[in-house]
Fold this sequence. Notes:
By secondary structure, chain A is α/β, with parallel strands linked by helices. Helix content of chain A is about 45%, strand content about 10%. The first copy, chain A, folds into two domains: about 5-55, Orthogonal Bundle (Helicase, Ruva Protein, domain 3); about 75-170, Dna Topoisomerase Vi A Subunit, Chain: A, domain 2, CATH 3.40.1360.
Amino acid sequence: MDRAPNDIEALIAQMARLPGLGPRSARRLVLHLIQRRDQSMRPLLAALDRVSQSAQTCSQCGNISTAPVCAICTDTRRATGEICVVEDVADLWAMERGGVFKGQYHVLGGTLSALDAIGPEDLRIPQLVDRVGNGGVREVILALAATVDGQTTAHYIADALGHTGVKITALAQGVPMGGELDYLDDGTIGAALRARKDF
Amino acid sequence: MDRAPNDIEALIAQMARLPGLGPRSARRLVLHLIQRRDQSMRPLLAALDRVSQSAQTCSQCGNISTAPVCAICTDTRRATGEICVVEDVADLWAMERGGVFKGQYHVLGGTLSALDAIGPEDLRIPQLVDRVGNGGVREVILALAATVDGQTTAHYIADALGHTGVKITALAQGVPMGGELDYLDDGTIGAALRARKDF
Ligand SMILES: [Zn+2]
Ligand SMILES: [Zn+2]
């Protein structure tokens, strides 16, 4: 790589910093792209460029969207009064692949963490409290990881919503201890949702 | 992903087809890029765009370059009369990381393969024969994998260059059986180069 042209070295360095990639896989990827400029490099560039220009965060739920409010929030058939609270967009996508949940979401953007000094105001928890306070919500389903931080966050949200009287449930059976939602198979997520219990 | 916006789904699908990535790692990558648009997405786009416009194949050696002839071929200090023959650009980069070889390269673009019906005319072998025939070459170092196809290719090239009288050597000690060059550590490549033997 010492003698790879500077532009190419810079691209490899960019790629190597992405999650799941390292210098070796980045070199392989960049070579692949250069050697398949028309079939691979140009379509990828065009797709990245479109997403770079269009992607934004849904102002209601925190999902990633190509409009100010996402397709799930604007779908009136999904205004069921159920809000599923997830840690991040990857978890929302995992829930959608499960295909069982028909309501709307609220993406926290993380979990509470004493260690990382992440408090409620760093997440979209105040927005969730406002959203529930505005009415029309029957049930808040806490679909958070079965980790210490995930469960701390679940309890915090249940407390924060206590005064609203809304029903609060949590994914139950099917989420293994220490398990992260995004790693579960789709069937397990569906089972956990159907067996949700009062929190 | 069912409900990810179409542009984002298309980008994930593009990414998932790249070597070493799959749907799950592609989703993670795309989320990472979207959520770090300024720190990650835009610099990656710019770097990809530069490489997409500038990358080309060196007309002399087959290396990837940002000019018609690559930086190694135009570096007169590297016109030592030694040509190192490698399978692909990843192997050239691996040799360069070793930092031992000071001559020039010839990138074949693959190895002969009866199974895949890859013959000499599918590789840059005729160009190598021409290049050696044009004079100024003292030694051709065959730095090919210790695989059946790699060694078949080495023997074919040795035969094809036989009439030129040029010295032909091969990487020796240090390349493990079945080993691919690009997986070796840098020190091993240097040792194999220094211990090269007549072929
Ligand atoms: Zn939304
Ligand atoms: Zn060159």
